[in-house]
Amino acid sequence: MDFSFSEEQTLLRNTVQSFLQDKYDFDTRSKISKSADGWSREIWAQFAELGLLAAPFAEELGGLGGSAIETMIVMEEFGRNLVIEPFVETVVLAGGFLQEAGTDAQKEAHIPSLIGGETVWTFAYAEPQGRYNLADLVTTAKKDGDGYVINGYKCVVLGAPWADKLIVSARTSGGQRDADGVSLFIVDKNAAGVSTRDYPTVDGRRASEITFENVKVGADAVIGSIGKALPLIEKITDRAIASLSAEAIGGMKMLNDATVEYCKTRKQFGVPIGKFQVLQHRMVDMFMAYEQSVSMTYMVTLKLDEDDAERCKAASGAKVQIGKAGRYVGQQAVQLHGGMGMTDELNVGHYFKRLTMIDTQFGNVDHHLNRYSNAA
Amino acid sequence: MDMSFSAEDIAFREEVRTFIADNYPRDVINSRSRGDMSRDDIMAWHKILAKKGWVAPHWPTEIGGTDWTISQRYIWNEECARAETTPLLPFGLSMVGPVIYTYGNDEQKKRFLPGIYNGTEWWCQGYSEPGAGSDLASLKTKAVREGDHYIINGQKTWTTLAQFADWIFCLARTDASAKIQEGISFFLIDMKTPGIEVRPIITMDGAHEVNEVYLDNVKVPVENLIGEENKGWTYAKFLLGNERSGIAGVARSKKAIERLRKIAASELVDGQPLIGDNEFVRKISEVEIDLSALEVTELRTLAAESRGQGPGPESSILKVKGTEIQQRITELTMEAVGNYAFVYAPHGEAEGGNAFVPGPEYAKGASQNYFNMRKTSIYGGSNEIQHNIIAKMVLGL
User: Fold this and answer.
1) Does B361 contact chain A (CB < 8 Å)?
2) Which of A308, B69, B71, B270 has the greatest number of CB atoms lying within 10 Å of its CB?
3) Chain A nearest C-alpha distance from B70 (Å)
4) Burial group, residue A134, by CB count within 10 angstroms (0-12, 13-18, 19+)
């Protein structure tokens, strides 16, 4: 039993930390978020240079052979700095699908440019009727010669405005919510028949609604086995959940530190408000919520390669914990900062908004309580 | 004890409902929230009600009050919420208006009450300062008497809709040597006076609702002082008591729950309506039960008030519970819309009013409303301060 980080892991954290301190302070982040593109291709290129985009890939693919722990470290630091760039979408999700289930040809074709930062990816899975159910798909892919023709609609595809390539879930057989019959395809965002409408999200990012109209893809676009992709999707989205958990603890830590500091300096009634016991206990509860979230983040990170049921319980358990803790810490950080906590100018509201959206992403507390309860 | 409505009440409800249906300018006012509306749109309904004589039901009858019974006031609020009319701004009607007719002199009443009543003059509130929030009495804005004027210097903050205001009612320190509550005075200041600068504060939901107001050597005529110099804290507290009793928002919350149920009926979970999800419905029921309790608590408070008691410190219950319920409803509404909670809906024309906003109409701004409503447990005396008031004034701790 050992919860310490290796020297290499500590070095990785220090590298990410000092890079973000230099290049990604809150003002810079706000400017990036409000810019026309809404993200920084330059920062992305620097992530590639630092090797962050290569971290979780096997060495024979040009990666650094890192484990889920390296991803956790990167995501925790990204959470502390409210990084907008699509690391989860490109590296954890698309990279995860390619590495886990891609053919050798797909890996060779796609992973080097992903690691190099030249190609940005995202995962188009959600549909308006489907809510958080990954199998509830109206989008279809029909066999057409050697390839497939995709028709359908995907909603709130995060990072899609920046993406070159999409991984799209679609039904190749079965009923609308059947576990069987779900397949994954690589689709060029500029392929004929793909149309996108972009918009900003409340947490300072961008997303798209995507329509697929008779989009033709070849047989080489299929990831994994036709009709059998649901377990793969569950596995890779659980990795994304572990990443979001790490991002969330980074955000919570920032809010807790900022709140304690503020309550030590903000004076009302002649004393720092941190002297009031009712606020002290509130901050202790925030601290405990954070610590419990750190524990769940470690647990899910270490269990990502366990069998499906075990992994699923760890991921859903972590998602419930960070959903509840993120809400509590976010709300109380705003409350204890008073009016300042409500402003766009101070970073507190931005962490609160991101934590709130992390709860929505890949299913909220209610969804994961059900998933946890149903996991054998 | 009787909680039923009389035949007169039922007739009154019919009259009010018909009036709103016939007169509410729905074609003019179609914005999602007040933060997105123009000045004229915000005031349109106020002016219609002023003409009808219903804009200030709680004022004394000789200056425009309606002398409605508790039941009638309750019915009026219900019907306005049911029709989703724009809420009337409280700054004139519920805040400075009562201060002026209670503590102002005849000239002040004649000068200011008609403008407040008719909605021709817009008021904002100069209370909070960067260093004086929960501890309002520690305010530092200074007023110095010079001949027939005061010279006022300082900074106010969180000033709601000051960008539209004609007048600001303002607390300033006139005696720095007195105990902190005893050196404060209450001023009425023309926003056009040289030396006043309004700077916007954008909140985390992207709205421009609040402002900073800077006062730099602002000359205020002596006749704009309310009551006596250094007695401003008495008037300020009177105003805060009135502010609190209007803050429960029961009727609006009822409407918001009705809306939430409709959203939950449209949203699907595994092909079934969300409203069929037992866990989610229980959460709606829980907040609805809290609201039922608050509704009766508010009626009990109003009944006590109509017998000439209060509003006492118990009205802090209305503020705490009312805002907790409002926050919970917006939280559940955000949960209900699922993935579309991510969508940012721009505010008004300035932010690109015609920008693409995906998802069903009811989902628009769902999480922004949730973020915005976090302010309610901070403003009007934070909920922690309300707990202190009850602990001290009611429980005697």
Assistant:
1) no
2) B71
3) 34
4) buried
Spans of chain A below 50 pLDDT: none
Q: Where does the pLDDT of residue B355 fall: very low under 50, low under 70, confident under 90, or very high at 90 and above?
A: confident
pTM for this entry: 0.96
Quickly state the pLDDT bin for B28 (edges 50, 70, 90): low
Active-site residue flag, B286: no
Binned at pLDDT 50, 70 and 90, residue B70 comes out as confident
Chain B residues with CB-CB distance to A203 below 8 A: 342
Are A335 and B382 inside 8 Å of each other by CB?
A: yes
The alpha carbon of B229 is separated from its chain's Cα centroid by a whole number of angstroms, namely: 28
Chain A residues within an 8 Å CB radius of B379: 339
Tokens linked to B397: 């701790």
Name residues 227-286 of chain B within 8 A of A (Cβ): 267-271, 277, 279-280
For residues B296-322, one letter each, b for 16 or more C-beta atoms within 10 angstroms of the residue's C-beta and e for the rest, the string is ebbbebbebbeeeebbebbbbbbbbbb
Sequence-separated contacts (24+) of A152-155 with Cβ below 8 Å = A152/A127, A152/A211, A152/A212, A153/A127, A153/A128, A153/A209, A153/A210, A153/A211, A153/A212, A154/A124, A154/A125, A154/A126, A154/A127, A154/A209, A154/A210, A154/A212, A155/A126, A155/A127, A155/A128, A155/A209, A155/B339, A155/B340, A155/B358, A155/B359
Please answer whether residues B297 and B325 qualify as being in contact, where contact means their C-beta atoms are separated by less than 8 angstroms.
no
Q: Which among B202, B280, B367 is the nearest to A356, CB-wise?
A: B367
Quick one: pLDDT at residue B227? 97
Count CA atoms within 13 Å of residue B392 on its CB side.
Answer: 7
Give the residue with greater pLDDT, B31 vs A245: A245
Which residues partner with A200 through β-bridges?
A206
CA Rg, chain B, in Å?
22
Cis peptide before B311 (omega within 30 of 0): yes
Q: State pLDDT tens for residues B147-172.
A: 999 999 999 999 999 999 999 999 99
> Which one from B78, B243, B267, B331 is the annotated catalytic residue?
B243
Q: Does B148 touch chain A (CB under 8 A)?
A: no
The total number of residues written for chain B in this structure: 397
Please say whether the beta carbons of B29 and B45 come within 8 A: yes
Backbone angles phi, psi at B86, to 5 degrees: -60, 130
B391 to chain A, any CB pair closer than 8 A? The answer is no
As beta bridge partners, residue B170 has B126, B187
A142/A138 Cα distance (integer angstroms)? 12
**pLDDT tens readout for residues A150-200:** 999 999 999 999 999 999 999 999 999 999 999 999 999 999 999 999 999
Question: In this predicted structure, what is the pLDDT of residue B35?
Answer: 60
Q: Quick count: other Cβ atoms within 10 Å of Cβ B91?
A: 23
Q: Which of B201, B204, B342 sits opposite A357 (nearest CB)?
A: B342
